Amino acid sequence: MLYHLLYPLSAEFGGFNVFRYITFRTGAATLTALFIAFVVGPMLIRRLEELRVGQPIREIGPDHADKAGTPTMGGLLILLSLLISVLLWSSLDNRLVWIVVGLTCAYGVLGFVDDYRKVTQGSSAGISVTAKLFWQTLLALLVALAIYTDPGFDARISVPFFKNFEPYLGWLYIPLATFIIVAASNAVNLTDGLDGLAIGPVMITAGTFLLLAYAAGHAGIADYLAIKPVPGAGHLAIFCGALIGGGLGFLWFNAPPAQLFMGDVGSLALGGALGAIAVVIRQEILLAVVGGVFVMEALSVIVQVASFKLTGRRVFLMAPIHHHFEMQGWAEQKIVVRFWIISIVLGLVALSSLKLR
After folding, report:
1. Domain ranges for the chain
2. Please, which pLDDT band fits residue 226 given cuts at 50, 70 and 90?
3. Prediction pTM value
4. Cα dihedral value 270, 276, 293, 335, nearest 10
5. Which of these, 91, 108, 134, 210, has the minimum number of CB atoms within 10 Å of its CB?
């Protein structure tokens, strides 16, 4: 909005030419989202406390009874900061931005309904797994179709660390993209189990994709790095910056002991957003590298369930894997910080792979 209002004035006032640059607007979007989160956060926490929107705590597993009643649905703070900032600083005629924003909002609504049912029912059940997967898959399928039917779409996918290996998938790209978005959403949701655990890797992944989106939207940089050029993808760097800013603002209130929990309204939406960005900028496989913490969390659940059903034995003391380390006696803060460190390393590996290809 500000871009459309102020950049045209550059013809008369040269200083407004700065609004032309995506780098400037990315930084502005980050700070705007952070400021909004700082301002809105205390008001949102008070309102959630008044409504008694407390987090139900599972009775099994590590003892987190001291967290019972902490306001949930904190993802609303991230989404509000993110969306307002994107609308202010991004180009509103960019189709790719609207695809990612649309999916983020839709997954946010799904997560909100899930959180609302948990709170009103006083349990950790929420929406049934079948219903949740149905809506996630349907929404992700719409995004996959929107990308696939783009006139300039190329159904070849890039494989990290391999320069000339780009398998052509044809229509099979649609189920792959759908799976990536749904898997990313649920993986972030599984990771959101400790104070600050999910938002750290989310911001690190968003930071990595910020650079990749800018590169994909710049023909010269894309050619130099041998990545697929995606016209208009640079504006998603603004989205990623706003996500980082909103995430930092949320972390201010989510740092242990948390005043606010993310809830499914945040984890489902942010995971879906990362998956959608990966698909849009054509870094589908690289998401599994930079988002390796999410992959590890999801795989631990899959392995645990499969092992128990097939052999009657558990591989981990408890899944997702962060609870396994809790059961081993690790302090919550130690788990969170170490997972952040792993995420940073994976982000660097993902960026390094661009020149190793």
Report:
1. 2-283
2. confident
3. 0.92
4. -10
5. 134
